[in-house]
Each structure stands twice: as structure tokens, then as C-alpha cells.
Amino acid sequence: MRVSVYEFLDSDSANTRLTASRRLKTLLGWKLAMALGLNLWALVPYYWLQHHPFFPVAIMPTIIADEWISFNEAAVWLYLSLFLLMPVAPMQMVSPDDTRRYALGVASMSLLADLVFFLWPTTVLRPNPQMSNIVYQNLTHLVSPNNACPSLHAAMAVFSALCYEQIAPHMRDRQLWRLGLWIWALGIIYATLATKEHVALDAAAGSLLGLIAYLAAFRAKLFAVPMIRKGR
Q: Mean pLDDT over residues 194-209, rounded?
């Protein structure tokens, strides 16, 4: 008889029945090590290049979208919530192949962004409010406005929301989760503009980078074609 199978189906039926807590515990050691390694890979060169640009730093221009979104220091909470969004998908992955692809996507995205930061350092003009909340003050003290374009915040938000598709088949209320995660991701992109950490062009470039990194990392699964094999 002839059986249609797909290369991208790498999880068996047992995996689809795992609870969220069991999925979290699966490969937990590897996931934690991956998170630590990826953070070091992304953050060390990012912060170093912020404070040691090799070429003249260009100021990113604003467009009309930046005028529409006024400064809102309270958006700093939404801005920082990226670090809660990022682990949602990878911590629910149970396939070693999926976690490797996730790591490859984040690593390549950071590398490409760092290459841009090295060759074309950019910055934005932050507001100087008379009064601001302590969280926003700490953010501006810890993070330089340099390395503006592409926005890694926007890139990671888009990449994280897209990675949900790798765990969606195993989630209850998957459509509700999908909607919620995309609202969250778009809210984070809005926060990058409302806190004036980035301008709209930064966010657009970062969003495109996140999309490209996802397609590159998971292309074998996304664009796989059916294979026909003969069986007896």
C-alpha cells in the first residue's frame, strides 16, 4: 500500500498528549543551558558594541508613525515583558530538532544584527522628561540608545510569536493563544516606540529580521513536501 508521510512530523502521537507541565520538563536541562548560552551570545556583543562603536554613529530619522505615538514612560513595563514572551514557545518544545532550530534562529538573528551594528552604528534621540518612573530611569541608565536599527526587541517579539506555530498543534485553545501572543508581540513593538527606545524604521527592520530568522530556522518544516513511500 502507499502511505503519505511528511518529513516535518518529528513528534510522535505520545508527544501530542503531553500536558504543559510535562512538555516544560522535557529536555529542561538542555532548554535552560540553551537559554543561558543564547543570552550570552546575544547580549555580550550587543552591549559591547553599544559602548564601542567602530564607525560614526548615525541618528535614525523619524517618520509620521513616530509622531502618532507619543512618549509614554509607563510602556516600559510592556517593553520589558519581552523577557516573559521569549521563553513561551521554546519551553514547550519537546523535539530536540525544534529546540536546535530555535537556537539557530536566535543565534543567527543576533549575529546579523551585530554585523549591522558593527558596520552601521545607529542611535535615537531620547526624550528628557522632568519626571519619570524608576523603572524607566533604570532602563535608560543601563541601556544606551545606540544599536537602534534593527530593533532586536521587535525582532525577538516577532520571532517568539512565530515560534508558537511549532507548539500550536499541542495546545488547547490554540487560536486564543495565537491571538494573545500576537497582541502581546505587537504591544511590545508599540512599547519600543512609546518609550522612544526605537523609531518606526528600527521596529520595521527588526520585525523583518525576526521573520527572516524564523523562516530560515524552520524552513525544512515549513516548506517540506510530502514523500511517498511504498509499504507492504
A: 96
Q: How confident is the model at residue 22 (pLDDT cuts 50, 70, 90)?
A: confident
CA proximity to 191, closest of 151, 161, 228: 151
User: What is this structure's pTM?
Assistant: 0.85
CB under 8 Å to 187, separation ≥6 — which residues?
A: 78, 81
Rounded average pLDDT over 61-76: 93
Q: What is the mean pLDDT of residues 145-154?
A: 95
Q: What is the pLDDT of residue 5?
A: 34
Which of 92, 104, 73 is CA-nearest to residue 196? 73
Residues across the chain: 232
Q: What is the pLDDT of residue 117?
A: 96
Report the C-alpha dihedral over residues 58, 59, 65, 68, rounded to 10 degrees.
170
Q: Which residue carries 564607525 as its cell?
A: 55
Distance CA 209, CA 188 (A): 16
Three cell numbers at 205? 527592520
Banded model confidence at residue 133, pLDDT cuts 50, 70, 90: confident
